[in-house]
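Recap for those who missed Tuesday's class. We walked through two folding examples back to back. For each one, the amino acid string is listed first and its predicted structure tokens come directly after. Nothing is annotated here on purpose, so try labeling regions yourself before you check the end of the notes.
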Amino acid sequence: MQQNPTPPQPLRAGRIARKAFTALEYYLHVEAASGIVLLVATLAALIWANSPLAHSYHALWETPVTFSAGRYSFGRPLHFWINDGLMTVFFLVAGVEIRREIHDGALSDVRQAMLPLAAAIGGVTVPALIYFAVNRRSGDISDWAVPTATDIAFAVGVLALLGRSIPGNVRVFLLTLAIVDDIIAVLVIAFCYSSGLHYSGFAVAAAGIVIVIALQRLGVGSAPAYVIPGAVVWFGLFVSGAHPTLAGVVLGLLMPVVPIQRRVGQREYLPPALRIEWALHPWVAYAIVPLFALANAGVSFAKLNVGTGPAPWVLTGIVLALVAGKPLGVFGVSWLLVRLGACRLPCGVSWRGIGLAALLAGIGFTLSVFVAMLAFSDEAMVDVARFGVLLGSGISGGLGIAWGLLRTKV
């Protein structure tokens, strides 16, 4: 009896391509819609913080929330649980997305990923240099990383407003650029904003990681089983002095990207990484990130002082870095590599499309605000930095929309 032949390579490649395309379409759809929710949350925070109810805005986030187990208790303000707790889930999804893209996505082929990878590095380096040039006289430039991150939800959301006239590969280029940007931001947070490290905490985190790997080897696919070891990793990093949200990235990168073989011989249809991404991504996009925006975008204009000390330089540096530095870095590096023959433009993407992605890369909200709160110890300077991020991101978004409307055939 003749056996069925092995499917030819093109058919296999086609199935893989369809799977990747479905995941990409899902990701872009969620990010585009969440950009609108994020904008609403940001505007709501600004209105609330500058209304007669401003006191209730600040009081809400300082409400103490305590978790107790027997004689042990751990209490922090609500603001902490949002920024250091819920944002861990944001970083978990980011870690899973990075892991999947490295395995079979835009970052799996070095030649394909080279251009957005280099563009992202340029989009971090040039804004940092501009910020350094503006603030070099202040003597403290530890806040250089504030204007270097791209907000995926806002950027993809603005791109979606331009409609189907924008080629799909422009969206892929921007998405890949933003993902690499996120990787760099995570590394910056890990190495530049973790101080006074206590290595006993790393031992606790390592124990949690060992448990996660052991559960995976045992074929445990139930997500609740990983909650406790994930909490151990988070607590270990918190004790160590590293930012606890990095636990999300660590756990995301550990997620298997192929279906798990269960102990009883059954094999899961979807890999854990994809299941976790599809399950958590809507919660992150429509709830966690907008809640983060609501809790952190409420800059009080009445208390904002941008005319004294380092404040005007910080504000100017952030705005210039986002509005000018990001496009110059992304477009300049892309042009240079293509000119030298090291890379090629993606199929169907012109220089006008690269210019559009470069302008939208200047929209840096979520991670930029997150880094600002790590970089500045003075609350007044945090407000200045947040205002600079909002202003620079708004200008970048406006320029991107104007460019896209004027150049519909990108």
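Example two. Treat it independently of the first, because the proteins are unrelated.
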Amino acid sequence: MALDTGTTAWLLVSTALVILMTPGVGLFYGGMVRKKNFISMIALSLVALSLVSLQWVLIGYTLVFGHDIGGLIGGLEHLGLAGVGLDPGDGTYPPILFAAFHLAFAAVTLAVITSAVAERIKLSSFLVLGLLWTTLVYDPLAHWAWGGGWAQSLGLLDFAGGTVVEINSGFSALALALVIGKRVGFGQHSMEPHNIPMALLGGGLLWFGWFGFNAGSALAADGIAANAFLVTNTAAAAGAMAWLLVSWLYGRPASLGMITGGVAGLVAITPAAGFVTVPASILIGGVAGILCYGAMVWRLRRQYDESLDAFAVHGVGGLWGTVMTGILAATAVNQFPGLLEGGIHQCLVNMSAALVAVVYAFGVTYLIALAVDRLMGLRVTEEEEYVGLDISQHGERISY
């Protein structure tokens, strides 16, 4: 087929938007930690981008999109992006651009799970953990959903990563938090965000970048992309308002809570963006804001130090969105009927895939974290944690 310059241009822009989300995560998380760990959180996101960029082109892409092996993993024919060229072939855009687009997804997913280890992980341990996690957790899940694996063959609807990115990162973060343990003084001393405007800026960048994340996943400049764009914004707005209102019932309507609710709405609409109508996106995003707020409250009551709530927002929001995709998918948007249109099988497939993603992400991440902890130790010393990771890990500090 001939190269479609419009689609190619849109995918180039979408790839750049998704890459922007990774430093967006760093700013969002960095504003929420204490001042002495601000640089560390931004650095971890950029380390995630750099590490995954190399892993993906060397082995990650082929593990996801190589020929299917037993429904579980891709073959090795594309090692080092072998055979992934510039000629569009049967498509309308260069395969190498498709590889770059999905590289950005893998990078931001690793950045999200830094929530679980904020203010206490050794940089060296994160490098090893990140490489193992991307290869053994992210890549198999991405193959199952997008690369011809068992979930895709059963008919899973996951437009932009409800299982691959959101459930995966959220439940992996919970597993990591349980292994690495609580920050020193957690539950005893105040650990309030040091720079809320910075967190708001990071959240805003995530909202902006998510248009590439979801609308770009149409892999075309068409009506499905336009629908994904609008429902993404609508769900984010519904999530922001829902979190704001429910938090108002228990105190003041914090701006940080509002943007967190917006992210919850973005997370929840991710698997559904190319399959549901605009009214459905209001339901998905609004309920996500309430559910994720409740998950955060539950986490705090259980005294789990999953520091920046990737579990509550990405894990719970992604689970909700994936299940609701199987229920609310509409043939008026795409060809797939959800449960409300008689698609019982679709609903069961989405629910099953979501459950498997929860178990696999949590279980394998827990084992990887245990192994890294036993071999080299996950966390810094108590003295290094007291000083802060900016100084102890990077030899830098902010001056304001």
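Answers for example two:
The first strand starts at residue 68 and ends at 69.
The domain at 5-394 is CATH 1.10.3430.10 (Ammonium transporter fold).
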